[in-house]
Amino acid sequence: MSATFRKIFIERLPPAYFAMVMATGIVAVACHVTGWELFAGPLLYLNVGLYAFLWILTVVRVFTSPGNMLADLKDLTRGPGYFTIVAATCVLGTELIVLRQAYGPGLALLALGGTLWLIIIYAVFMSFTALDRDMSLDKNITGIWLVAVVSTQSVAILTALMSETFASAQLTALFTAVGFFLVGLFLYMIIITLISYRLFFFAVDPATLSPSYWINMGAVAISTLAGATILESAPEVELFQTLRPFLVGCVLFSWSVATWWIPLLVLMGVWKHLLRRVPLRYTPEYWGLVFPLGMYTVCTFHLKNIIGFDLPERIADGFVYFALIAWSMTFYGFVRSILGSLVDDEE
Question: How far apart are CA 251 and CA 266, in angstroms?
């Protein structure tokens, strides 16, 4: 193993690198629901490999750089990245069910994702609570914090998809999915308030305006999909008939907020790269831009089943192009970063 590769991809491996699996998985699902099967299948197989690859690096890092991992957990800008492990696990499970009806692996990934969520969400937030120092809001909160929402909603989606296989426990599974869905909305309300306050009331340096702010949109896009999946999976029983108007309102609210964010995020990118001329260079944070684009495509496609007409499907059919282009460019940057680390080591 080259020294440069070890330094970049093990010792300093960003906890949020599992966002690559999240992005690849949801883009594959987006291709599937919009009819691009030519891409959906290969992306699924690639994603299984990427997930295994990142777990290998993570396990190696546990044994070779435990101090760095603990430091990341206490870092307010890197610690929330651990939520991507949960989200990646559940997105992969969702991908396997949607594309291959692989409920066995889906159940295993749900068990793993749920367990990781329970550990990570309290480990991260408790580590921040126990920090014996004051942290300034303008320097320590970014869109990466919203992966806490994404991970929670990813568990809700996979639980709802698996519920029909649980027979007599179906209602319990769907009730659990609703709980995760509502907790995800609760977390979004808290965190997006802090992020918005930071963006609108503190000076913003274009060079530090990271792509992770696209998760402002992605977190409510996945909330839309979570609510829609629960509604599509719910049986005709009194509990869910009572909840249905409320859940439909939450879904429409989430989709509307996600849609509102898109023009502002595009304008922020124009301001950063075109007006302030900050160079466009690959960083792992760009997977935090790809994932929301794919998720918006999928959630918009499913919205048609909730509102009963086809406009959302036409929007999804157009939006999938942006998701595919963004994924291709980011994956190209990822491959170049690996090759570049190997070349640097040889020199």
Answer: 23
**Which candidate, 207, 187, 211, places its Cα nearest to that of 283?**
211
pTM summary value: 0.94
Which run of H or of E encompasses 317? Answer: helix 311-346
87/117 Cα distance (integer angstroms) = 9
**Neighbouring C-beta atoms of residue 306, cutoff 10 Å:** 18
Alpha-carbon distance 227 to 233, whole Å?
10
CB atoms within 10 A of CB 99: 18
* Residue 142 DSSP SS3: coil
What's the pLDDT tens digit per position in 158-193?
999 999 899 889 999 999 999 999 999 999 999 999
User: How is residue 219 written in tokens?
Assistant: 């977190």
The amino acid present at 302, given as its one-letter code, is H
Q: Tell me 213's DSSP state.
A: G
DSSP H or E stretch at residue 148: helix 147-162
CA distance 305 to 307: 6
**How far apart are the C-alpha atoms of 107 and 172, rounded to whole Å?**
15
Q: Structure tokens of 291?
A: 């994932």
3-state secondary structure 117-128: HHHHHHHHHHHH
Length of the chain equals 347
Q: How far apart are the first and last CA of the chain?
A: 15
For residue 276, count other CB atoms closer than 10 A to its CB: 12
Burial of residue 68 (CB within 10 Å: 0-12, 13-18, 19+) is middle
Q: Is the pLDDT of residue 4 over 80?
A: no
DSSP letters, 225-255, are HHHHHHHHH--S-HHHHHHHHHHHHHHHHHH
Burial class (CB in 10 A: 0-12, 13-18, 19+), 146: buried
